[in-house]
Amino acid sequence: MSMKKYFAIIIMTLILVSACNQIDSTKDNEPKTTDTSTELSATQELKKFESMDEIVEFLNKQQSGQNNNYMAKTFGGGTRTMAAMEMVGAPMADMAGSVSGGSDGATDYSQTNVQVIGVDEADFVKNDDKYIYTLSGTNLVIVNAYPAENAKVLSETEIKGNPTNMFINDNKLIIFSNDNEQIYRIAKYDFMPRPRHTQSTHVMIYNIEDKEDPELIKDFSLNGNYYQSRMIGNHIYFIVNENVYHYNNFVDLPMIRENGKALMSPEIYYFDNPEQNYNFVTVSSLNVDDDEIESKSYMMGYSNTLYVSLENIYITYQKNVPYNYRGNEEERFTEVILPILPKNTRDIILNVLNTEKESYTRWNKISDAMEEMYNRMDEDDQEYIIDEIAEKVQEYEIKREIDRRKTVIQKINIDNGKITYDTKGEVPGHLHNQFSLDEYEGNLRVATTVQAWGRGESILYNNVYVLDDDLDVIGQIEDIAPDESIYSTRFLGDRLYMVTFKRIDPFFVISLKDPKNPEILGKLKIPGYSDYLHPYDENTIIGIGKETEGNQWGGISTAGVKIALFDVSDVNNPEEIDKIEIGSQGTDSEALHEHKAFLFDKKRNLLVIPVREVKERRIYDPVYNYYRNRVWQGAYVFEVTKDDIDKKGKITHMESIQDEHYYYQTPHTVRRSLFMDNVLYTISGAMIKANEIDDLDEIKEIELPYESNDRNYPYPGPIEPRMMIDDGGIEVREMG
Question: In what order do the strands lie in the sheet with 519-526?
Answer without folding.
Answer: 485-492, 495-501, 505-511, 519-526
